[in-house]
Amino acid sequence: MTVWMNSDAKKQLTDNIKQNKNLYIFNGIMLLVLGIIALLAPLVAAEFLDILIGCLLFVTGLFQGVVSYAAKRHWTYYITAVISVIAGGLLILQPMAGMLALATIVAIFLLLQGCMQIFYAGIYAPFTGWIWMLLSGLVSIGLTAFIYVGWPITAIWFLGILVAINLISFGISMLVLATFCTRALR
Q1: 159, 133 in Cβ contact below 8 A?
Q2: What is the distance between the alpha carbons of residues 169 and 138, in angstroms, rounded to a whole number?
Q3: Residues 160/45, Cβ–Cβ less than 8 Å
Q4: Residue 76: CB atoms within 10 Å
Q5: Which of 12, 13, 22, 44 has its CA 20 to 30 A from that of 59?
Q6: Which residues contact 116 (CB under 8 A, 6 or more apart)?
Q7: Rounded to a whole number, what is the largest CA-CA distance in the chain?
């Protein structure tokens, strides 16, 4: 794989990984632990994700509304506040519909993240662990396609599985990168 980074950029990247090796390892371990938890309870993970996002949207909408009122903003500022409150409330009150909507959003996210991980694999190609970043990107893209195979049944439970597998594969890629960053291929 051709790497378009010059030697100074490669050295800076290597130095950054070496200096922050423990953070890379910690990040990888945390991603693995969270991935295993989500894998063991995918429905709970999916519903938790749905309700968490619903709560965030609901509180954000309330906050926007209060700030808009206190600042005596034009009535149009209330539109996003109302949309956030309604969207958050729907995710909280209708978790099944919310999980289907979130499954679609997560599938799009995984597709984009997979593409970016493949791009990053090219950047990290001088290091021994770069192949894991590439594989992680390919896994993310494969998971995106798989979620639609049995739609909507798979989306109900697979959202938690998708998140779990993504967290695990990204955690492994971070651990391998931190462990083998000094073994440059070129």
Answers
A1: no
A2: 10
A3: yes
A4: 8
A5: 44
A6: 137
A7: 61
* Residue-by-residue pLDDT tens, the chain, 186 positions: 445 667 788 788 888 888 888 898 999 999 999 999 999 988 888 888 889 999 999 999 999 999 999 998 888 889 999 999 999 999 999 998 998 888 888 789 989 999 999 998 988 887 888 899 899 999 999 988 888 787 887 887 887 887 788 889 999 988 988 888 756 544
Q: Which residue has the tokens 């590439």?
A: 134
Q: How many CA atoms are closer than 13 Å to the CA of 64, on its beta-carbon side?
A: 19
Structure tokens at 39: 């894998």
Tokens of 147: 């979620």
If residue 129 lies in a helix (H) or strand (E), which one and from where to where?
A: none
Which residue, 60, 165, 63, 182, is CA-closest to 110? 165
CA gap 28, 37 in Å, rounded? 14
Q: Contact, 44 vs 166, CB < 8 A?
A: no
| 33's tokens | 């632990």
User: 3-state class of 73 per DSSP?
Assistant: coil
| Angle at which helices 42-70 and 21-40 cross, to 10° | 110
The distance from CA 25 to its chain's CA centroid, rounded to whole angstroms, is 18
On the CB side of 186, CA atoms within 13 Å amount to 15
